[in-house]
Amino acid sequence: YGSTRPERILAEVKRKATRGDARSVVDTIDQYCRHQEWAMNVGDEKGTILDSIVCEVKPRAMLELGTYCGYSAVRIASLLPPNSRLITMEFNPVFAAIARQVIAWAGVEDKVVLIEGPSGDWIPKMKKEFGLTSFDLVFLDHWKDCYLPDTKLMEECGLLRTGSILVADNVICPGAPDYLEYVRGSPRYESKYFRSHLEYTRVEDGIEKSVFLG
Ligand SMILES: O=C(NCCCCCn1ccc2cnccc21)c1cc(-c2ccc(F)cc2)cc(O)c1O
Ligand SMILES: [Mg+2]
C-alpha cells in the first residue's frame, strides 16, 4: 500500500524495524528492496564500502547530496562520532518528507540536518547558513550529471580543504563519466575506485573515493 515507492518503504520500516535502532532500519530497507521492490538506495554491498570510509574519516562535518528515503543518511549517521553533523540534501519534497520520518524512526535525527532544494542554489550559501569552514567528507548520490559541476562549485565556494574526501555512488551505473575523468585526471585529486554492484543486483557499479589535495 502507499501510493509511492518511498511511502511503501516507510510503511515497511514502521512495520518491521525497531524504533531507535538504525541498524534494523537499514536491514529492513535492504530486505524489502532486495525481495519486494528495487529502489535506488546505495544498498548493503556498496553501503559496506561507504561505512568503512566514514569510520576511517570520522567526519565532524559531512554532506550528502541525494537523500531519497534516508537509507544512507541513517547508515552514515549511525557511525558518526558525537557532535558530528550530516547535512543531507534532497530536491524532491515527497522524498524529503519520507526521509525525515525514516531518519526519526531510526533515532538519528539529532545528527542529521535535512535540507530541501537544488544543490546549485544551496552550495553557495552553506558556509554562512551552517557556520561551516569546510566538509571533511561529501557523499555524491544525486543527479549523475551534477556530480562534476557541483564538485567544481564546492571547490569555488571553499567548501573543500586539503584532505577533504569525495565519495561518489554510481560512477559506472548509471555512470558519471565526466566526473570520473575529472577526479582521475586532475592533479588536485587522488582517486580510487571500489568495484561493486548496482544495489540489489549483479550489474557492475562502483564507488569512487577522491581526496582533494588543495
Ligand atoms: O538517479 C539516481 N539518484 C539520483 C536521484 C535524484 C536525485 C535528485 N537530487 C537529490 C538531491 C539533489 C540536489 N540537487 C539536484 C538534484 C538532487 C540513481 C539511479 C540509479 C539507477 C536507476 C535506474 C537504473 F536502471 C540503474 C540505476 C541508482 C542509484 O544508486 C542512484 O543514486
Ligand atoms: Mg546511488
Strands, count: 7
The H/E string reads: HHHEHEHEHHEHEHHEE
Helix percentage: 40-55%
Uncertain stretches of 5 or more adjacent residues? none
- Class derived from helix and strand content: alpha/beta
Radius of gyration, taken over Cα atoms and rounded to an integer in Å: 16 Å
Number of helices: 10
Which small-molecule species are bound to the chains here?
the ligand O=C(NCCCCCn1ccc2cnccc21)c1cc(-c2ccc(F)cc2)cc(O)c1O, magnesium ion
How would the global form be characterised? Answer: globular
The mean pLDDT is 98
Biggest sheet strand order reads 3-2-1-4-5-7-6
Distance between the termini: 49 Å
Largest sheet: 7 strands, mixed
Strand content: 15-25%
